[in-house]
Amino acid sequence: MSLKEYFETTKGTGVLATSDKDGKVDAAIYARPHVMEDGSLVFIMREKLTHNNLKSNPHAAYLFIESGVTGHKGKRFFLTKIKEEENYELIQEIRRRTPNEKESKENELKFLVFFKIDKELPLIGSGE
Known about the structure:
Helix content: 10-25%
Number of strands: 7
Shape: globular
Strand content: 35-45%
Oligomer: single chain
Order of helices and strands: HEEEEHEEHE
Strand order of the largest sheet: 2-1-5-6-7-4-3
Number of helices: 3
């Protein structure tokens, strides 16, 4: 199964960890990433701590825990930010759910943040 198929069909909980230029760490719940044709992972972000951290430190880690499986199953990704865009049309095209009224504030800035995958590991273990 390709990574694109995996994230389109597998339910679970994701955590994106970032740190600022001084190494102060943040972790936040994030939806499944979108996998682009070139293999990059894309997250839709608001202007909050995670996005601010990525301005000064492009490195992140994403942990995905699959739902409904016995034991612990999922994936870990070590990522580097490669670009970001303010592309409302693409955000609307790739989003998986319709925002509720509170979430769809017209003036709230959202970003598409693109990452290259530096390393992929299973949720538990080294993958060897």
